[in-house]
From TrEMBL:
Residue span of region Disordered: 92-121, 172-207, 245-294, 323-347
Species of provenance: Halomonas elongata (strain ATCC 33173 / DSM 2581 / NBRC 15536 / NCIMB 2198 / 1H9)
Domain KfrA N-terminal DNA-binding per the UniProt entry, residue ranges: 8-118
Protein name per the record: DNA-binding protein
Lineage of source species: Bacteria, Pseudomonadati, Pseudomonadota, Gammaproteobacteria, Oceanospirillales
Coiled coil: none
Amino acid sequence: MARTGVRYEDVQRAIDSLMAKGEAPSVHKIRETLGTGSFTTISEHLREWRRLREENRDVPPPQGMPAELQELAEALWTQAQEAANQALAHYRQEADSRVDDARQQAAEAERRAEDAEQRETALSAHLTQIDQRLEQRTSELAQLRTEHEALQEREARSRDRLDELVRRLEAAEEEARRREQAHRQALEEQAETHRERLAQEEERNETAEARLMGLLDQERQERQAAEKAHAGREQRLTQRLETLQEQQSALQTDLAAARQAQHDAEQARDNAEQREAALRDQHEQLNARFEEQERRIAEQTEQWRERERHFEQRLWASLEAMREEWRSERTASPGDENDTPDATNPA
């Protein structure tokens, strides 16, 4: 389409001016003559002027002119037309070449425009996909940030819980050590008390045994003395019987006395044996009491040891449960603390 700034009449006047100067009209010369206008509009008007000139080439000049003038005009017109045709053929060839170039350039421009449009469409689709992916990544990033904040909060709570468990574990271990120390001290005091009681019982038993041995020695001495006295009396009686056979009545009296003495000695011996049996019974009773006390002490010691083992088992079970709870809490939260070595139950 021609621009409104350059009309066909303007182009025609510029062509007439160029032809009056003897110059062949062209788009560039017309543009220089007019000083304005686009090459496309001037080219369209120039083609229109050439088309009209070709159509009016065979039109006879108007009548009424003098013959000489008409012949001169026709000759001039013929010369001008021939010159114009020659110039026109040259310029037409040049114009056709330029038109072909322009068409090729236009086709290339259209192709480039189509390529640019396709690239623009592809870029728009790609940008749309990028925007969608960006929105998706932004949403995922926001979700990840939310999850990260939640994880940080859970980690902080887990660390607080872990610190609390560590403090509780340390307090429990301190309490266990204190109780163990108190228990050991109580056991040592009880063992010391048992040792003191055992020493006292041993001392009492030794005293009783010493007394018993003293009594036994005394009884043996008395028995030996009685036996020795009895032997002396029998010897004296025998001597008197041998020497005093003649004094039968005296011997009978002495014999009765001797029998009475023998009876007394036997009775004393029986009494000594009874006292010895009583002392033996007392010694056996003391031994039985001593064994009973030792058995009771052993039972009490075994009961204390059983209580101590039961207390240690409960204590270590409680510590193990706390350690398992601490391990489960630590496993549930990704953490960065060093592992606490497990204590081994001595039971």
